């Protein structure tokens, strides 16, 4: 597989990564709250040995590197989060919330404008995602339930000298349900290695909004595309059938992400999947395109009026007028809409995606996105 920077969205039959194994191996089949499973630890008895089975081939060399400080699968490196929401009467309730370090759930928030929705902000007491970390996140939304899951702060993927970090996210929404999974940005520090797999399982009448803002370094200090490798996949299934397979693979050591046709002059990549199998995707795409492009233009205008220099975040002065470039398109197989945004800083990209998220929620639920409680 080509390891240079690439982004692919489309029919899963055309995705050359579709038959590769997940990044971090299989989820614990017993669903226990104990240590990492045997496949991840490389030990038949499930104990941490510091080496796990090779993930995607691009990470195979990293997988052979032991982590002496705290081996792969050791306590604190096998984070697990399991959230389940169910409709009870006229409201949604969090009916299961298991969290293992570094995840922490402090409770629910009732600030969503949708009367039946429930919100959870996931926190982390650690400094960030470290080498050898293997995290598993499961979020399930029951029939007719409405849930919003986010994070309390940005996810920092720390510098790594050995091995890599992996995350498996499994999101599912039953008939008539809706999930917003829109975490704060992910920041890739110098030397970071992250392999992430996201699966979304929807009933035909369910919907979901799944977002990510990827920041390629601590931009304010001039760190830009200095991470080792980033790979993320998103697979969407409707009624058990794979409808969309999307992959991002950035390897700055092999191909420059700043090359024309990849990221170009921009640094920050924002992605929003608006998944609604029973919606009119072309018309929804048109409305979200108008929303996100208007938000991008508004941000650029406000930045110009304030006279803020883009150089502080690694952008050139010539690029100030075009702070964000964004657009929307219908996903294949009547799955929904894909929104993408490129920018020099995380905030304008986040604002553009939020405008699209607000529009999508208004279309799908009749109310806009909830306020950001991080501010």
Structural commentary:
Mean pLDDT is 83; it is low at 1-9, 11-22, 24-49 and 309-319. The chain is of the alpha/beta class and 375 residues long. A hairpin with a 2-residue loop joins strand 14 and strand 15. The protein has helices at 38-41, 60-63, 281-306, 346-365; strands spanning 6-10, 80-88, 91-100, 104-109, 117-123, 134-141, 146-151, 155-157, 165-173, 178-181, 186-188, 193-202, 207-215, 229-238, 241-250, 268-275, 324-330, 336-343. Strands 4, 5, 7, 8, 10, 11, 13, 16, 17 and 18 form a 10-stranded mixed beta sheet that branches. The protein has an 8-stranded mixed beta sheet with strand order 1-15-14-12-9-6-2-3, with no helix packed on it. The relative contact order is 0.13. The longest helix is centred in the last third of the chain and has 26 residues, at 281-306. The chain has one domain (55-365).
Provide a compact summary of the structure:
With 375 residues, the chain is of the alpha/beta class. It is 14% helix and 35% strand. It has one domain (55-365).
**Record field, number of beta strands:** 18
Strand share of the residues? 35-45%
One letter per element, helices H and strands E, the order comes to EHHEEEEEEEEEEEEEEEHEEH
Q: Supply Rg.
A: 20 Å
> Largest sheet, described in full?
10 strands, mixed
Shape: globular
The low-pLDDT segments are 1-9, 11-22, 24-49, 309-319
Distance between the termini: 42 Å
Number of folding domains?
1
Annotation field: number of helices: 4
**Helical percentage:** 10-25%
What structural category characterises the helix and strand content? alpha/beta
Average pLDDT works out at 83
């Amino acid at each position: 597989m080509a390891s240079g920077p690439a982004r692919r969205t489309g029919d899963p039959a055309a995705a050359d990564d579709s038959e590769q194994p997940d990044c971090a191996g299989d989820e614990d089949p017993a669903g226990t709250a104990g240590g990492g499973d045997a496949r991840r630890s490389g030990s038949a008895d499930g104990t941490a040995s510091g080496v796990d089975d090779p993930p995607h081939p691009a990470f195979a060399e990293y997988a052979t590197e032991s982590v002496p400080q705290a081996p792969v699968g050791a306590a604190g490196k096998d984070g697990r989060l399991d959230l389940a929401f169910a409709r009870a009467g006229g409201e949604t309730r969090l009916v299961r919330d298991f969290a293992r370090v570094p995840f922490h759930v402090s409770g629910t928030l009732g600030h969503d404008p949708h009367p039946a929705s429930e919100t959870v902000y996931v926190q982390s007491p650690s400094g960030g995602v470290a080498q050898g970390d293997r995290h598993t996140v499961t979020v399930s939304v029951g029939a007719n339930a409405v849930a919003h899951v986010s994070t309390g702060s940005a996810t920092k993927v720390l510098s790594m000298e050995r091995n890599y970090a992996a995350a498996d996210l499994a999101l599912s929404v039953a008939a008539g349900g809706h999930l917003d999974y829109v975490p704060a940005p992910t920041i890739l520090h110098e030397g970071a290695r992250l392999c992430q797999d996201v699966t979304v399982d929807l009933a035909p009448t369910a919907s979901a909004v799944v977002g990510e803002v990827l920041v390629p370094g601590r931009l304010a200090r001039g760190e830009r595309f200095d991470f080792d490798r980033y790979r993320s996949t998103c697979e969407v299934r409707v009624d058990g059938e794979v409808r969309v397979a999307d992959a991002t693979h950035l390897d700055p050591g092999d191909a420059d992400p700043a090359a024309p046709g990849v990221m170009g002059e921009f640094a920050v990549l924002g992605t929003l999947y608006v998944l609604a199998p029973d919606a009119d995707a072309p018309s929804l795409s048109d409305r979200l395109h108008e929303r996100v492009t208007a938000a991008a233009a508004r941000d650029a205008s406000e930045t110009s009026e304030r006279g803020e220099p883009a150089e502080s975040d690694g952008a050139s002065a010539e690029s100030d007028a075009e702070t964000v470039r964004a657009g929307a398109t219908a996903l294949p197989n009547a799955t929904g809409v894909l929104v993408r945004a490129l920018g020099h800083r995380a905030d304008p990209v986040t604002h553009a995606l939020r405008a699209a998220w607000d529009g999508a929620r208004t279309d799908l639920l009749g109310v806009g996105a909830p306020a950001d409680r991080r501010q």
